[in-house]
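Contributing: when you submit paired examples, paste them exactly as shown. First protein:
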Amino acid sequence: MAEQTRNLAIIPARGGSKRIPRKNIKLFLEKPIIAYSIDVAAKSGLFDTIMVSTDDNEIAGIAKNYGASVPFLRSAETSNDQATTIAVLKEVIMLYAKHDTTFDNICCIYPCAPFITRKALEETFSLLKQGQADTIFPVVRYGHPIQRALKKQGNYVSMIDEQNMTVRTQDLEARYHDAGQFYWLTSDALHMKGSLITDKSIGFEIDENETQDIDNDTDWRLAEMKYTLLHTNIKN
């Protein structure tokens, strides 16, 4: 009998958010925003363990109350403003390994991503299981072709790439950006390539209405309104 695949969800949530203080546990509608990430991971049924990587005891307590585990606190090295997501993931895997616990696949789920759906987690994991990718994550198509981007010099604007001035927008190739929600990756890819985007990464396209950058208070209010609209009479 084949050995069962073991999956780990890591939710990185340090306490030192600058633009929105205590962002990771700020109430989003009726509950701390991190609770949405924990909840969707749990409802997916994909994970052997759902853990929160944090340096903050209050965040740890809230995470536990909503069903996540916090087996250890994050180090000072991975808690500063310069720490990368990859560094956080590697630290978590290393600490689990010290306790003889290993995982085949990892899903890094950001704590401020209430628009993640169970369906997206399931479909992207299904793609990962096919063995054709190191990493898989949601992407969103730019609303307007970036090939027609402008730059400003003083009060004047000009095309960054003038050869696209006369090209019809519908004839320009679509471009995408990272939705900033979650990343599936194999443990082998984490150890061998150490990047969330490799030469074998798959972008799983989602609608622009299914994501929202939350970098300031206005973004936060917009996200709450969008979430409310999307979830009126809809169950994911």
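Second protein:
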Amino acid sequence: MKKIKNEAALLKKAIEVGEKYAMNRGYKGFSQTNAAKQKVESLYRLLVHDKLVQPLAKDQETQVNMKHKLAIWISKQLPKDHELLK
């Protein structure tokens, strides 16, 4: 797995955008007590279900890989000149 430049910031943006996407899909939203781990896994599974993200192999479904997938997903959604992609 190749490390992406600004991966932590991209993940934060992916969670932000992913939460809005989930709410538009009818999810009631995440509470303040939800851990980032839970948000990452929930958003990853929603995006896989909606066929917006290629699923990982079952033996590769770790937090690190899910975070990486979310970072890749958001990097493809942002405009090419976005500051996080520079």
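If you have annotations for the second protein, write them as plain sentences, like these:
The chain has a mean pLDDT of 92.
DSSP finds three helices and no strands in the chain.
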